[in-house]
Amino acid sequence: MLTFRPSTDQDLPRVMGIWRRAVDATHHFLAPVDKSAIEAELMEFFPQVSLQLAVDAPGMPQGFMLLHDGHLEALFIDPDQHGKGIGKAFI
Q1: In the predicted model, what is the mean pLDDT of residues 59-68?
Q2: For residue 1, what pLDDT is reported?
Q3: What is the 3-state secondary structure (H, E, C) of the chain?
Q4: How many CB atoms lie within 10 A of CB 52?
Q5: How many domains does the chain have?
Q6: Residue 86, class by beta-carbon neighbours within 10 Å (0-12 exposed, 13-18 middle, 19+ buried)?
Q7: What's the pLDDT tens digit per position in 19-53?
Q8: Does residue 53 contact residue 6 with C-beta atoms inside 8 Å?
Q9: Of 91, 89, 68, residue with least CA distance to 2
Q10: Rounded Cα gap, residues 28 and 6, in angstroms
Q11: CA 36, CA 71: separation in Å to the nearest integer?
C-alpha cells in the first residue's frame, strides 16, 4: 500500500538514489558527464523545494514528483517499482 507525503531533508539520499537508478534505466541518451552535471544541480535544488513522495508501508520512498505552478516538472519512480502503478497514482 502506498501513501503520499511531502519530502523532508532526510529524504534527499533516497530521492537521489531513485533519481540515479531511474535515469540509468530510462535516460540512455544522457552521457555520463551530463548525468553528473544534472545530479550536482539537483543536489542543490531538491532541498529547496517540496517534492511529493510515494512511500511504501514501511515508509520507504519509491518515487517522487515535482509540481510547480500546477505543472508536472519531474516524475521519477524506482526502476524496481516500474509498472506497478505508482506513476499513475501520482497523476
Answers
A1: 97
A2: 85
A3: CCEEEECCHHHHHHHHHHHHHHHHHHCCCCCHHHHHHHHHHHHHHHHHCCCEEEECCCCCEEEEEEEECCEEEEEEECHHHCCCCHHHHHC
A4: 15
A5: 1
A6: buried
A7: 999 999 999 999 999 999 999 999 999 999 999 99
A8: yes
A9: 89
A10: 29
A11: 25
The grid cell for 64 is 517522487
CATH of the domain at 59: 3.40.630.30
Is 54:37 a contact under the CB 8 Å cutoff? no
Please state the length of the chain: 91
Mean pLDDT (the chain) is 96
- Domain range enclosing 40: 3-90
Task: Tell me the three cell numbers of residue 89.
Answer: 497514482
